[in-house]
Specification:
It contains three helices and ten strands. With about 130 residues, it is an alpha+beta fold. It folds into two domains: about 5-70, Ribosomal Protein S8, Chain: A, domain 1, CATH 3.30.1370; about 75-130, Dna Ligase, domain 1 (2-Layer Sandwich), CATH 3.30.1490. The strands form three sheets. Strands 6, 7, 8, 9 and 10 form a five-stranded antiparallel beta sheet that branches. Strands 1-3-2 form a three-stranded antiparallel beta sheet, covered by helices on one side. Strands 4-5 form a two-stranded antiparallel sheet. The model has no long low-confidence stretch (mean pLDDT about 95).
């Protein structure tokens, strides 16, 4: 049986790995999840992502988690739009996560990007998740 919400699975894997103090977490690959990984890397929430040595088939990629003084850099990661309840936002209603300290990840007609990028381009979309 297939997974109904792969993005939520990715966020849960990140959350669980950080609670366990892991250095990295392996995520089943897809274009949207790789793009979310790129955004988290660019925003400084994770140390990067790479292809694990054990998996030659390319079905997984590895997120390197970041910690500061023993605590995870990602304090809160929440799934907003779910398959059972999609959440779409207009460009003027894009959320500011913790007064701009966090980041909202939005799936737009021009690809997956941060809420700030979507606002600059003047487009809205599906609000995937927020990270702080």
């Amino acid at each position: 049986m297939g997974m109904t919400d792969p993005v939520s699975d990715m966020l849960t894997r990140i959350r669980n790995a950080q609670m366990a103090g892991k250095k990295f977490v392996d995520i089943p690959t897809s274009r949207i999840k790789r793009r979310i990984g790129e955004i988290l890397t660019a925003e400084g929430y994770i140390g990067g992502f790479e292809k694990p040595e054990e998996a030659d088939d390319g079905r997984f990629f590895r997120l390197v988690l970041k910690y500061h003084l023993g605590k995870p850099v990602i304090e809160e990661i929440k799934r907003i739009s779910r398959p059972g309840r999609r959440q779409y936002v207009r460009r003027e209603k894009l959320p500011r996560v913790y007064q701009g300290l966090g980041v909202a990840i939005v799936s737009t007609s021009k690809g997956v990007m941060t809420g700030k990028e979507a606002g600059k381009q003047g487009i809205g979309g599906e609000l995937l998740c927020t990270v702080f």
